[in-house]
Amino acid sequence: MYVNTVYQLEVASSTYYLDAYLWFKWKGDIDPTATMEITNLVEEWGAIVTPLNEEPMLLPDGHQYKLLKVEGRFMQPFVLADYPLDRQKLSVYLEDSTHGADQLVYVMDTEGSGYGHMLAIPGWQISNWSSHQLQHDYGSFFGAEKAGSASVYSTLRFDLEIARPVNFFIWKLMLPLVILLMASWMVLVLDPKLVEVRTALPATGLLTAVFLQQSYSDGLPEVGYLVLIDKIYAVAYAMIVLTLLRAIWTSRTELSGDLAVAAARVMDRKLLVGQVLLFTAAVALIVLAR
């Protein structure tokens, strides 16, 4: 299998359009192209499978050969636990719809398979490709056990391995969050007597963080777990809330003398340094533990 183009990759629906060349070489009476099925096509009615040689070609080594051009929309559930540092596989599953694994077995032609050197997927980096020879056991003879119907079929999976660039994580997601945290932390360097400003900044930052998180969540499917960037935002929420609580506590404390103001400033500086170190360590731990 040789991939030409990949386009309209949608993470929210775990689908993508793929255009590729697919060829078969075989010996014997069974023509695998007649009963071949691509099992992860989303819209079979919209798929285009075009034989580039109508009749099988006889190769010098005695194999029959047939080349197909395949284009369609495919589905492979994406695992987003490491988003936006996730790696995904764009897969194509081939399976025979009639002959069991005891009659026909798929084997990948690794020498000729791969993808075009001009292939590019916006927002992703192509790292490699791989193939896996599998067996699909349906666990059922579909009501035709006595007729010799098979329940185990040979399956071949082609994977195009892709990954998001690190720059997307740094500049598009982390930078706005860091700027937001820095704006909230400015409270801890202001005069402790500026009560209104010190409470307004982190409160506004908390709301802004919610909107920032919602902006990237809109492009993701509903999942029942926290993705990597969600965990970082959880830490950021804790930092902002801690800053807000410090501002509220200071506002309720009587700062009657210079010594009291100086002590409050020292405590603010210590809290600032501690939060910066804690946030940095937490982000590093979350990223490295993925």
* The named CATH superfamily of the largest domain: Neurotransmitter-gated ion-channel ligand-binding domain
Distance between the termini: 32 Å
| Secondary-structure element pattern, one letter each | EEHEEEEEEEEHHHH
Number of helical stretches of at least 4 residues: 5
CATH top level label of the largest domain: Mainly Beta
Mean pLDDT: 91
Largest sheet: 6 strands, mixed
Strand content: 25-35%
**Number of structural units classed as domains:** 2
Fraction in helix: 25-40%
Can you walk me through this structure?
The chain crosses the membrane at residues 168-188, 232-249, 270-289. Keywords: Membrane, Transmembrane, Transmembrane helix. This protein has 290 residues and is α+β, with helices and mostly antiparallel strands. It has two domains: 2-163, Neurotransmitter-gated ion-channel ligand-binding domain (Acetylcholine Binding Protein, Chain: A, Distorted Sandwich), CATH 2.70.170.10; 167-288, Up-down Bundle (Methane Monooxygenase Hydroxylase, Chain G, domain 1), CATH 1.20.58.390. The protein is built from five helices and ten strands, in the order ββαββββββββαααα. Strands 1, 2, 4, 5, 6 and 8 form a six-stranded mixed β-sheet that branches. Strands 3-7-10-9 form a four-stranded antiparallel β-sheet. A hairpin with a 4-residue loop joins strand 1 and strand 2. The longest helix is centred in the C-terminal third of the chain and has 31 residues, at 258-288. The radius of gyration is 29 Å and the shape is elongated. The model has no long low-confidence stretch (mean pLDDT 91).
